[in-house]
Amino acid sequence: MSNQVHVIIGTGSLGKAVMRELKRRGVERIRMVNRSGRLSEAEEVEVAKGDASQLVDAVALCKDADVVYHCAHPGYTNWPSQFPGLTQGIMAGAAAAGAKLIYGDNLYMYGQANQPLTENLPDLATGKKGLTRAQMAEELLLAHQSGKVRVAIGRASDFYGPGVKQSSLGERVFGFALSGKPVSLLGNLDMPHTYTYIDDFASGLVTLAQEDRALGEVWHIPSAKTHTTRELLELIFDELGSTSKISTLSRPMVTMIGLFHPMLRELKEVLYEFEHPFILDHSKFEAAFGPQTTTPHVEAIKHTVQWYKEMMQEERAR
């Protein structure tokens, strides 16, 4: 694996976490791909500029790849119009290179389920973002079955960690708490909710890349113990050594504010995640690949708080 070429499409929080995990496992030939061709870690990896939604670019970006990681996504409000084309481009690039394609997915396609989420649940999403995710996963698996490209899909729950800002447990929790502002969350804080640490997500995706047994299937990436959101907040406040006021948005409030706020309007589709128990079952992964070591939330929160402190210090110094 150390001599293979690993191409990571998308240099957001997940792409960078995959890069860190590959380095941890001794991989030296890593190509990070984004539209700017710039990355702060550029001295340690190759950085390529291009638009993976365009076939010519995608093929060039994936040239010589042994593994391609799909960690890219368009803006949250643009998923239906832009995400399928991006995924099709990445799929074509991986196919042209003869590379494995590892897709970092989420859980929107299942819709509201009144049980822990397992890989054999049907796609019951009715909202446009869930339908988009379901469509892309289906196309990827069909491409694998037809022999076009070797694919494995890794799905994680709402994630948090270094570099993660646009998340339910992102800047409006960690950043706001460090700034002395009320933290802002959705729904019922006392419902059990699986949260995935971003480095655990990355570790799971790299494991899928190493295992030919993973190909052609969907896998739920192992996460640390499921807590309620309120319990996670208490762990965050313990790490900070202080508490913050907590602001929650109910469904009626999201509906009202969403009339003027595009992001909240989009989030209404997945509010059920925060109104009911939302528990990810990853037993299939461990049955296939053995017990997995996930990062305890206390440790993950410590790393996340430290990243936010450093990020905020850098912003103040500018």
UniProtKB/TrEMBL annotation:
Pfam family, one: Epimerase
All residue ranges annotated as the NAD-dependent epimerase/dehydratase domain in the record: 10-218
InterPro entries (alphabetical): Epimerase_deHydtase, NAD(P)-bd_dom_sf
SUPFAM superfamilies attached to this UniProt entry: NAD(P)-binding Rossmann-fold domains (SSF51735)
Coiled-coil zones: none
Family: Belongs to the NAD(P)-dependent epimerase/dehydratase family.
Protein's name according to its UniProt entry: NAD-dependent epimerase/dehydratase domain-containing protein
Organism: Paenibacillus allorhizoplanae
Lineage: Bacteria, Bacillati, Bacillota, Bacilli, Bacillales
